[in-house]
Design brief:
The structure holds 2 protein chains of 2 kinds. Chain A has a single domain, classed as MetI-like fold (Orthogonal Bundle). Chain A is elongated. Chain A is built from 12 helices and 2 strands; from the N terminus they run H-H-H-E-E-H-H-H-H-H-H-H-H-H. By secondary structure, chain A is an all-alpha fold. Chain A starts with 7 loop residues before the first helix and ends in a 6-residue tail after the last helix. The two termini of chain B are 16 Å apart. Chain B is mostly helical. In chain B, helix 5 runs antiparallel to helix 6, helix 5 runs antiparallel to helix 10 and helix 9 packs across helix 10. In chain B, strands 1-2 form a two-stranded antiparallel ribbon. In chain B, a hairpin with a 2-residue loop joins strand 1 and strand 2. Chain B contains 13 helices and 2 strands; from the N terminus they run H-H-H-H-H-H-H-E-E-H-H-H-H-H-H. The longest helix of chain B is centred in the last third of the chain and has 38 residues. The chains are: A mainly alpha, B mainly alpha. Chains A and B meet through helix 6, helix 10, helix 11 and helix 12 of A and helix 1, helix 6, helix 7, helix 10 and helix 11 of B.
């Protein structure tokens, strides 16, 4: 990511340099201004969340730093401790700007963790289905089809109803709700790849099954996986926020963005909009920027749309 | 054909049974509902009496067996909180959810299809690009946040419509519904719009794709050559052809509307099944949670069964493939 601009001097030395697939991908991705902007916004959000303890005026969950005197202050008010609350404060006197950045840490962690775990599990199951074939494939795909006939939000709701609250439980619920999307994608791609000549060649060379699947087929399935991964991660973040908003996701002690919005909901009808609206905007920026990047990735990585 | 239907029925039964195991054991492992029910100063004897009254002192396998026996007779247990049969509670709240989901579906069709038609006919116009951008937002904005914004804008700032509740119910042909009174309509507008947003985006995209495909086909060219007006070509010939997939998909989405209504009902305090579920989860009212989840599972399994059977009638290949597997 650091080496984004091509070095002109280098290009001048070797004018006939062959473009690698990654360079072509990079060039095509940054052609779209919207997608580039979305990626930058997303990276800024991640950076803010990571740096939260060093760039916020208070740790909103350290009770010693929070004063009830500061409760429900409108944006721009001055806090009891002297700093300005640019985004106002919530019902228990927490600075919203600080609370949002700390909340983003939890929301992003849950979204990314469940996305990665669901991807790994779904990928393994999908590969097994595609390569094993026969009865095993039929059974796996029947389960996948069955699960995909329920909306992911409903599956996740069912799981949290059964599992209860907590970060680990919500990640588990999201993984269970989403693995099937990855499994279906990997299987479909792997089936196409398996019938190609390079796999046949690898098999003729006597390379082990395991190696053929993971070293030869898997890398060629990555493009659709990445696309599904971005979209599913965005939906995991939004789903977690929804569940937490409903009060069945994360507990008050682990306040993600969804919990913050839920806390502000009771003040909304009395016109104190900021307690819900600003965390909502943060969630919105995160989810929309990931979706825009994913949308463009789909176009760039889809060989059928190649010019 | 009969063999196919019987196979699918057996599969559906198996699914419902497996889900009952997962739901029942899952829900019954979390937390201890007794402490939510007895008063804080109850002594040990009171607590034990409550436990045995709710049947929680029996081994979990026996509890499950009793649940299955009851379920086979249409009894899904009594609510811990209300003391009424869980099924009755849910059926009592079902009309409100149905009317909300139905209104959302209507809104999705009435708003989504014309916008999709426009975007499909003039793909390069500025308005079409705006419509498509809006539909991306419709897909990626979290429903609950849009709901909050709708309340803030229309109920708090502009004060056009009330924010919560179901309003006055009107009666028509023996059905009680908010749709039959002005007050009820003003109450249902925001929640229905909120629930419909995702489906509006879906309808826009489906219609647009259908229109763009159909406009290049021979029958449209032929209709043009015959000298029909553009209006007639679009409204009669094109619409007739693209409506089939759009209506199919929208019908299938009805199930997910009922599932999604959990969120909308909570925000707008709409007294439907979804709100009942959330309240039940928070109060550890296990029989109601189990009963709701089982009814939803049954609902989805039924929808899928009907679709499978209809498809197998329309397309015999589905049936043959199933036998081969």
């Amino acid at each position: 990511m650091t080496d984004m601009t091509a070095n002109p001097a280098l290009n001048a030395d070797k004018p006939a340099k062959v473009e690698t697939p990654f360079q072509r991908f990079r060039a095509e991705f940054f052609e779209s201004k919207i997608a580039t902007g979305a990626l930058i916004v997303f990276l800024i959000i991640v950076l803010l969340a990571v740096l939260a303890p060093w760039i916020t005026p208070q740790n909103p969950y350290d009770l010693a730093q929070v004063s009830v005197m500061d409760g429900r202050l409108p944006p721009g008010s001055e806090a009891f401790d002297g700093y300005t609350m640019w985004l106002g404060s919530d019902g228990s006197g927490r600075d919203l700007y600080s609370a949002i950045l700390y909340g983003l840490r939890i929301s992003l962690t849950v979204g990314l963790a469940s996305g990665v775990i669901a991807l790994l599990i779904g990928m393994a199951i999908g590969l097994v289905a595609a390569y094993a074939g026969g009865r095993i494939e039929a059974i796996i795909m029947r389960i996948v089809d069955l699960q995909l006939s329920f909306p992911a939000s409903l599956v996740a709701l069912m799981m949290v109803a059964a599992l209860g609250k907590g970060v680990d439980k919500i990640i588990l619920a999201l993984v269970i709700a989403q693995w099937a999307y990855y499994a279906r994608t990997v299987r479909a791609t792997a089936l196409v790849e398996r019938s190609k000549e390079y796999v046949e060649a690898a098999q003729c060379l006597g390379i082990s099954r395991f190696r053929v699947v993971f070293r030869h087929i898997l890398p060629n399935c990555m493009a659709p996986l990445i696309v599904v991964g971005t979209v599913q991660t965005a939906s995991a973040i939004s789903l977690e926020a929804t569940l937490s908003f409903l009060g069945v996701g994360l507990p008050q002690t682990e306040p993600s963005i969804g919990v913050l919005i839920a806390n502000g909901f009771e003040y909304m009808l009395s016109g104190r909009y900021w307690i819900s609206v600003f965390p909502g905007l943060a969630l919105l920026l995160t989810v929309v920027s990931i979706n825009l990047v994913g949308d463009h990735l789909r176009d760039v990585l889809n060989p059928r749309l190649k010019k | 054909m009969t063999v196919f239907i019987i196979r699918r029925l057996l599969q559906a039964l198996l699914v419902v049974f497996m889900m009952s195991v997962i739901v029942f054991f899952g829900v019954n492992i979390v937390g201890d509902p007794v402490y939510m029910l007895v008063s804080p100063d109850a002594d040990q004897a009171d607590i034990e009496a409550a436990i045995s009254r709710l049947g929680l002192d029996r081994p979990i396998l026996e509890q499950y067996w009793l649940f299955l026996k009851g379920a086979a007779q249409g009894d899904l247990g009594d609510s811990f909180i209300f003391g009424e049969p869980a099924l009755k509670l849910i059926l009592h709240h079902m009309p409100a959810t149905m009317e909300l989901a139905f209104s959302a579906l209507i809104l999705a069709v009435v708003i989504g299809i014309p916008l999709g038609l426009y975007a499909g006919l003039y793909p390069d116009s500025r308005i079409s690009k705006g419509i498509m951008a809006a539909s991306i937002f419709g897909f990626s904005l979290p429903t609950f946040w849009v709901g909050l914004m709708l309340i803030m804008l229309f109920a708090v700032e502009l004060q056009w419509v009330p924010a919560t509740g179901r309003g006055d119910l009107g009666s028509f042909l023996g059905i009680q519904s908010s749709l039959f009174t002005l007050d009820g309509l003003s109450h249902i507008f925001l929640p229905a719009l909120n629930l419909a947003l995702l489906k509006i985006s879906l309808a826009i995209r489906l219609t647009r794709a259908g229109v763009r495909e159909a406009m290049g086909l021979d029958y449209v060219k032929y209709a043009r050559a015959k000298g029909l007006s553009t209006r007639r070509i679009i409204l009669v010939h094109v619409m007739k052809n693209i409506m089939i997939p759009v209506v199919t998909v929208m019908g299938l989405e009805f199930g997910s509307l009922i599932g999604f209504s959990v969120v909308t009902e909570t925000i707008f305090a709409w007294p439907g099944m979804g709100k009942l579920l959330i309240d039940a989860i928070l109060q550890l009212d296990r029989p109601v949670v189990v009963a709701y989840l089982m009814i939803i599972v049954l609902f989805f399994v039924l929808i899928n069964l009907i679709v499978d059977i209809l498809y197998s009638i329309l397309d015999p290949r589905v049936r043959l493939q199933d036998q081969g597997a």
